[in-house]
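User: My advisor, Dr. K., asked me to get a structural model of this assembly before our group meeting. I'm new to this, so sorry if the format is off. These are the inputs:
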Amino acid sequence: MSTAAVRDGIILRSLARIGHMAIFLAQMLVQCGRVLARPSLVIAQIFNAGGRSLVIIMLSGLFTGMVLALLGFTTLQRFGSTEALGFATALALLKELGPVLTALLFAGRAGTALTSEIGLMRATDQLTAMQMMAVDPMRYVVAPRFLGGLISMPLLTAVYDVIGLFGAYVIGVRMMGVDNGSFWSQMQSSVGLKDLTEGIVKSVVFGFICSLIAVYEGYHADPTAEGVGLATTRTVVASSVLTLLLDYMLTAAFI
Amino acid sequence: MIQQNAAGPLVAGQADPAKAAAVEVIVDVRDVHYSIGGRPIFSGLSLQAMRGQITAVMGPSGTGKTTLLRLMTAQIYADGGVVEVFGQNLADLGSEETFAMRKRMGMLFQNSALLSDIDVFENVAFPLREHTDLPEPLIRNLVLTKLNAVGLRGAAHMMPAELSGGMARRVALARAIVMDPELLIYDEPFVGLDPIALGVIQRLIQQLNQALGITSIIVSHDVNELASIAHRSYLMASGTIVAGGTPRDLAASQLPIVRQFMSGDPDGPAPFHYPAPDLVSQLLGGAP
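Assistant: The format is fine. Below is the predicted structure of the whole assembly, which you can bring to the meeting.
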């Protein structure tokens, strides 16, 4: 087979997959409206996707903030401007590291859980049983989990940012001796609404894409142990790559 | 009495047209063709299930019994022929109509298919909560009544993972009947059960049919269990119905395929070996 034929095959398969996912998304969005009428389903999934990811998010945020403060302090010290530490760490966390690292952690923790849960429901005929009870799994299983992930991501990002800033404060102010007032006042005066908006937009976009990939892969997993495993792997890989790609595009859009 | 029907297979019990017309056909499968990946699964399969009767569909493993159930429940669609349930051609139904049709039937899955994240009570209550606006006390009474019917009222608080295979099958049966369906479909209900659990399930299927008049279709390869409860049995092989009639008709049949299946002979019209090249030539490297 020629290189051109292989390339065309890959392009065609990719387009077919994107089209299939678009149809899946449309079907799911139709059900999302109905699901919102039963908030208990969504709240349970916010707990599953968001609540159960809190510990890993908080720990990662704390250590990220601490590392940022440590590196930032040693760098700024060379220029005699350590009072800018609060501003530097806040911008890095709010605009970039908070949304991106939260999304990567979300994909690894909640995304894989969503995929494997739905995939196992497929493998054990639970989804078919729902269809046989005249209940659409899109409405009862897929849409609530998608909405739960979508809502959880910005909330987790906010937690990550706050804990990260706390970590930076502990290292910068408490341990390295940066002036407390300078640390917070520089942050207050230099971080604007646009910076916050960028972080929020990124977290919503990442939440959308990571949740969509997780439920899509789970719903279409082969009903075998190997099939569920492969689907889970695809979730992590696709979510991580798309998160980083979209991060670049959104960063460029906000400049 | 076993007869040859128009589609080819042998079918019993249709000798008297007036009597046949008096019995309402709930599921009518006519000359169905279906293939997967070019491999034919059904070629001209026909059978009927009558209201108020227990219809058994038997056949060796791999003959497409579960696929037939999927066709009857509109999970998949035939390449050719007609599948009618409650007088409706499934191929003509939209998704809403298909869901409406499914509300009139219940299905017991081979692996029970209980929802793993909710307890036994909520599993049985699930269809009621989804399809009715009944007040909570009434839902509670209905669920406990159904669980009591299968002997598991005391297990209402347990999670599916805590149940044995037999208990899970009974809970699934309670869930299948909680909406009082007209038609119950059982996919291999006796597989993997100990003799006590098997007897319990067998008795429950019979009681549901006799007490509530629920039409039942049972797909299984357990000849003895089906013989005692089925009104009508079909034997599937080679993608079609090769024989049909009362269990007694099948037991008395002299057709080689029926004899082989009923007596459990390893070889006969249904070969023990999947098609393969000659063993000696394959072992000596002459064939892949």
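One thing worth pointing out at the meeting: The interface with chain A takes residues 73, 75, 99-100, 102-103, 105-107, 109-111, 113-116, 126-127, 130-131, 175, 179 of chain B (CB under 8 Å).

User: Perfect, thanks a lot.
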